[in-house]
Amino acid sequence: MNIDGKLTAQTLRDKLAIEVAEFKSRYKIQPSLTVIIVGDDPASHIYVKNKVKQTQEIGMISNEIKLPIETTENHLLSLLEQLNNDDSVHGILVQLPLPKHIDESAIISAINPDKDVDGFHAMNSGRLFNGEPGALVPCTPQGCVLLAKQHLGKDLSGLHAVVIGRSNIVGKPVAMLLLQENCTVTITHSKTKNLPELCKQADILVAAVGIAKLVKADWVKEGATVIDVGINRITTNEGATKLVGDVDYVEAFEKCGAITPVPGGVGPMTIACLLKNTLAAAKNSLQSR
Ligand SMILES: NC(=O)C1=CN([C@@H]2O[C@H](COP(=O)(O)OP(=O)(O)OC[C@H]3O[C@@H](n4cnc5c(N)ncnc54)[C@H](OP(=O)(O)O)[C@@H]3O)[C@@H](O)[C@H]2O)C=CC1
Ligand SMILES: Nc1nc(=O)c2c([nH]1)NC[C@@H]1CN(c3ccc(C(=O)N[C@@H](CCC(=O)O)C(=O)O)cc3)C=[N+]21
């Protein structure tokens, strides 16, 4: 079965649009998101454009700040300080990766945790790790769990989840969320031995690597739920570029119980969860009034 992320994301956005309207009429505040993008990677720009459009569609304010590739770390830090202190800005997202001369972790640490809609600040990852309330949780991992639950139902207790990848953006936080859902979690990475054998034990398999079609049908257990996070641009024999995931979709489809496609799976859910976090950040701002 195919898990339709586009449709699920639309449903989530429709629900959020109602919540945004309620929030606006109750508090006379319009939730707002500021996205900062440094440099001119075309793929990043398209992705940021989608975010801006969808933010506005559900009734929130979207600001985009485009900076040249030469932007210094100090300039970015002072911009963040300004945005942190601006009460009309509720969510801040700095598009990653940043140019090599900028220290990403210094930038992430400089974002006010209450405005950190990516959930990458140590305060938010610490809250997630400790199971404390109030964390802004990274968007892609939230999307993965929502899609898994869509197929498997609310209760994931006792299921074996195998995560391929251990980045701070996807692998580690998705593993934490699945653990919170009472899954038995195995985290794998580039140094893992017997990766196919481990994957074959998964009731839920999350692939977040960045290698086109790495996961083959014989890595997948019969009936498993496969969540494909990978976004890989490949050139077809005809010379066109197309997006594929980390899982060989056509092969795995026959074997698994359900699988998310690329495009149209986790990607749209990431953006919908970003909007959800922006509304949560706007709610955070009420506490500091
Ligand atoms: N759909 C969406 O919304 C999003 C999609 N993505 C996509 O997800 C993918 C992963 O992103 P991200 O986590 O940022 O990537 P990173 O490059 O930061 O991490 C990749 C991870 O994969 C592991 N890995 C690399 N090669 C192998 C291998 N042969 N076998 C097993 N593990 C391996 C690495 O291991 P090690 O740690 O040992 O190096 C690392 O932990 C990318 O395709 C990215 O574009 C990312 C964010 C959002
Ligand atoms: N600070 C920060 N936060 C991020 O969340 C972040 C980031 N930086 N840097 C880049 C990655 C990647 N990422 C994607 C989100 C949505 C789609 C998405 O919607 N993809 C569509 C396809 C879009 C297309 O056609 O190009 C889909 O899968 O259907 C893709 C990729 C978020 N990231």
TrEMBL record:
Stretches assigned to the Tetrahydrofolate dehydrogenase/cyclohydrolase NAD(P)-binding domain: 138-284
Subunit structure: Homodimer.
The protein's name in its UniProt record: Bifunctional protein FolD
Enzyme Commission code: 1.5.1.5, 3.5.4.9
InterPro entries to which the protein is assigned, alphabetical: Aminoacid_DH-like_N_sf, NAD(P)-bd_dom_sf, THF_DH/CycHdrlase, THF_DH/CycHdrlase_cat_dom, THF_DH/CycHdrlase_CS, THF_DH/CycHdrlase_NAD-bd_dom
Lineage: Bacteria, Pseudomonadati, Pseudomonadota, Gammaproteobacteria, Alteromonadales
Organism: Cognaticolwellia beringensis
CC per GO annotation: cytosol
A GO molecular-function annotation: methenyltetrahydrofolate cyclohydrolase activity
PANTHER family in UniProt: C-1-TETRAHYDROFOLATE SYNTHASE, CYTOPLASMIC, C-1-TETRAHYDROFOLATE SYNTHASE, CYTOPLASMIC-RELATED
Pathway assigned in UniProt: One-carbon metabolism; tetrahydrofolate interconversion
Annotated signal sequence range: none
Keyword presence, Secreted: no
Keyword Thylakoid: no
Biological process (GO), any one: L-histidine biosynthetic process
